[in-house]
Design brief:
Blueprint lengths: L1 H19 L3 H21 L3 H12 L5 H6 L14 E5 L6 E5 L3 H11 L16 H10 L8 H11 L59 H11 L3 E3 L2 E5 L6 H8 L3 H7 L12 E3 L11 E3 L6 H8 L3 H8 L13 E3 L10
Antiparallel strand pairs: 1-2, 3-4, 4-5, 6-7
Helix pairs in contact: 2-3, 2-5, 3-7, 6-7, 8-9
Length: about 350
């Protein structure tokens, strides 16, 4: 009887110690946002447990700088299609551009929309109850660079019983998607972002021999190779090239042997994604244009005008006293590219 009492007492102490490790700030955050996370599962098919775990991890339970100042609870950066508010914050690089929201609920919804991209299509092959599968697949699809990211999400879900959120809540059906198991012991295996049809057999056979070793190009050879495929052009006395479909600011900077941030700053492209057909200036744009002024066309963005004329956005804003919030010209406007002698002309 004494041994039984000691065992029960030890078990009670163990349970009490476990309860003590639960962060009250995390518990309060979960209580505040659990219904929002469940709603994302119902609307977009993303497990509420995953949404909540990512929010806890990325925002520090709503206490991070981004969460407090930008209402950004998922660390989502600016992209070319983002026309909302922006907030600059040091992350992988100094002064990176992050999305800014009116409130945290908007951040939760934008996170769900962000995961609708084709890049994350294979996540939705996994059952909504399989939070471990989702955690590993997000990492495989490139959501995070931290190799421990899945383990951190899984620990949060288990510690705070986030797997109980959204139980029984139906999710939207996706055409042609078949739930598939995830190989947890091989989280780094690359995946093809394809949707498997029920009628198609799954066969993985690879008997290809190991490719021969190829000596990497020198920095000069990389630059020469890049410029061979990207003929130089000039605008406003500055050399530029035209982006091809496979180009990104990261790989262009690597091939030109320059810092990505410098290349982005030269092109007013902090927070932007490079698109096919964009101009890439190989040195800093100027603060005055070749012409005194130009006429914009409806729908033209300030960035497009800046690239077309080889003039920095800040200079154009200064000469024309443009509101910093102006990103697109809604009407045809006369825009000055250099300081005029008569300031009243505007």
């Amino acid at each position: 009887m004494r041994k039984c009492f000691v065992f029960i007492a030890a078990l009670g102490l163990s349970m009490a110690l476990h309860a003590q490790v639960l962060n009250p700030v995390y518990l309060a955050y979960i209580n505040e946002w659990k219904e929002t996370a469940i709603q994302q599962q119902a609307d977009y098919g993303i497990p509420a447990s995953i949404t909540m775990a990512q929010a806890l991890l990325e925002s520090g339970a709503g206490k991070s700088e981004l969460a407090v100042n930008a209402k950004n609870h998922f660390g989502i950066k600016c992209t070319s299609e983002w026309f909302g508010g922006v907030y600059y914050h040091d992350d992988d690089s100094k002064g990176e551009c992050f999305r800014q929201y009116a409130d945290a609920a908007e951040s939760f919804k934008d996170h769900s929309l962000f995961l609708q991209r084709p890049r994350y299509a294979t996540c939705f092959e996994i059952a909504v109850e399989d939070f471990e599968g989702w955690a590993y697949r997000l990492r495989q699809c490139g959501y995070a660079t931290d190799p421990l990211y899945p383990a951190k999400l899984i620990k949060l879900i288990k510690d705070y019983r986030l797997d109980t959120l959204g139980v029984g809540v139906p999710v939207p059906k996706r055409e042609g998607v078949v739930p598939a198991p995830v190989a947890y012991d091989q989280p780094k295996r690359p995946l093809k972002a394809t949707v498997v049809k029920k009628s198609e057999p799954i066969m993985v056979i690879n008997n290809d021999p190991e490719p021969p070793y190829v000596e990497p190009l020198t920095a000069r050879e990389e630059r020469d190779s890049f410029l061979l495929m990207h003929p130089k052009k000039k605008c406003n006395g500055i050399v530029y090239v035209i982006a091809r479909e496979e180009d990104t600011y990261s790989n262009v900077a690597f091939r030109l042997n320059v810092r990505e941030r410098d290349l982005r700053e030269d092109n007013d492209a902090l927070g932007r994604e490079l698109q096919k057909g964009d101009r890439i200036y190989l040195s800093d744009k100027k603060n005055i244009g070749a012409n005194e002024y130009v006429w914009t066309h409806t729908g033209q963005s300030l960035w497009q005008l800046s690239q077309e004329e080889g003039v920095h956005i800040e200079a154009i804003q200064k000469y024309n006293e443009l509101d910093p919030a102006v990103r697109t010209f809604r009407t045809r406007q006369k825009i000055y590219l250099k300081k005029t002698k008569d300031e009243n002309v505007r």
